[in-house]
Structures
1.
Amino acid sequence: GAVVSQHPSWVICKSGTSVKIECRSLDFQATTMFWYRQFPKQSLMLMATSNEGSKATYEQGVEKDKFLINHASLTLSTLTVTSAHPEDSSFYICSAEKGLNEQFFGPGTRLTVL
Amino acid sequence: SQQGEEDPQALSIQEGENATMNCSYKTSINNLQWYRQNSGRGLVHLILIRSNEREKHSGRLRVTLDTSKKSSSLLITASRAADTASYFCATDASGAQKLVFGQGTRLTINP
């Protein structure tokens, strides 16, 4: 199998606080993981590519200092939304790459910033 | 950036009818994938079609790929209420590691 989990599944936080979201590949190792953001009734937008042991590659327009990505092991990548604001409220989805260009997606994390 | 465009954006049909969704893309691809997403949930992988394939079937799903037109279609036959979801195509561009998603089609199956 190829199962990817995310934690938490939903989080509510106050404006100005930081929130960490975890993405884990449960039964395989993933050198590469991806972080997406999805606003209501919209498609997934790739935020960054997370590579184990090296710096993440961010898509144009995504602030690397605001969305901190750490991929410290072959089964875990974390996304930290720093100093979150209401406009950061969104559905965050990760995926983990298994094999050649085959991605498996996590169930998503709903972030609500008050 | 999103290179995929899907049409229609929304589709509402009666249970038992067939549903067809289309996806267009702009660059050369290695493969094209279709995903389903129920409201507020993660993505479920439906089917992958490689650039050298023209048609693929999986149960009630039929996917076609026309690389000359840079387009793909997803056909769901004998639709069921449980098929109600958003459907996205995603392309794996040649030379690129990442997936680029289309805008999606919101499919509603009316009982």
2.
Amino acid sequence: DAKTTQPPSMDCAEGRAANLPCNHSTISGNEYVYWYRQIHSQGPQYIIHGLKNNETNEMASLIITEDRKSSTLILPHATLRDTAVYYCIVRVGAYKYIFGTGTRLKVLA
Amino acid sequence: DAGITQSPRHKVTETGTPVTLRCHQTENHRYMYWYRQDPGHGLRLIHYSYGVKDTDKGEVSDGYSVSRSKTEDFLLTLESATSSQTSVYFCAISESGASRTSSYNEQFFGPGTRLTVL
């Protein structure tokens, strides 16, 4: 199964863009990339997903490289409430999410 | 927030005892999932269900069984709990299972159950 690799931690200044990278070099052509975040010990929360094209919604943007081996989640104006663990996930088939170990993002005042 | 509850929220038990965790949803979503979360591993899928009485194994299913007799309830059972099953367990639901060519399959997660096996 495809694996994801993320840096274990990152800091970002409040108000600045947070760019969270993810490597998924073994991803297959029909496997989607999802991003979730987990605040404290709560259940993970959906952020965004994509296949080939870049995607944007009210929370974030997702940039996927042309070869699909990596992606970047962008939080355009990070706030203190964005402090969380961010998971880059590959969806295998219809149901199965392969979670990485996540990046702990700390937004600094 | 999606209407998902998990019970109990915290449980301490002893090795060898049976344990059942319950996930209840009020969203009428067809698909339900059980994950465990351990330090250094992210979340790992234990079992999932794609309909009443339809279940399948995930990547870490050994030592666990599930049942789904109603749309709204998905039960996870540890027949004989071991210390290696100490973990935080999350239930999730999704409206559609999506297909290989379909994009959308957002999963909504419950609040989690912290299980300690002594």
3.
Amino acid sequence: EAGVTQFPSHSVIEKGQTVTLRCDPISGHDNLYWYRRVMGKEIKFLLHFVKESKQDESGMPNNRFLAERTGGTYSTLKVQPAELEDSGVYFCASSTTGGGYGYTFGSGTRLTVV
Amino acid sequence: GDSVTQMEGPVTLSEEAFLTINCTYTATGYPSLFWYVQYPGEGLQLLLKATKADDKGSNKGFEATYRKETTSFHLEKGSVQVSDSAVYFCALRGGGSYIPTFGRGTSLIVHP
């Protein structure tokens, strides 16, 4: 089966621009999660979708970040306007249940804001 | 809140050396503990897990024992290979939460 796919794999944008990251989960996985790792720091939870609904968005840093999952399939994470501190690696994961054992992670999108 | 502390990296070893990556945690209750690995260009993969005190998780020659008395879950391997070069993340999932808490990650570099 295909894994979790994220694109782009890398993105370099200027401060103030907009960037949209995409995640395609494994087919049939209702749960989709976004995480972020700032260079050298912990992987931090951003939010969790169950199908198209936001189950938990407590980790979203501020209102410059907007996540959507229309139709309960792929998800997008938009950063508008981007700031320097948004640089990092954004991971997506999906699972069939809400539990922690069955996560499958994508390879991440490395975002650099200059 | 819950937290995970890992040793700073990078850890640089020669092939066949013994590996230890330290991990300690702070959590309420009795969390499940995990090690994830990220190979270059790939996503995080679950390496091993332990769900209760004194459990030993093992996979691909790696082992870690859930030590409640020292709140630790150190990762060990007796003889590393070049192919083990990756970033290793310790994580926990507390009771009642489905969201894992990750450590900062430790980069392992193994030289031939």
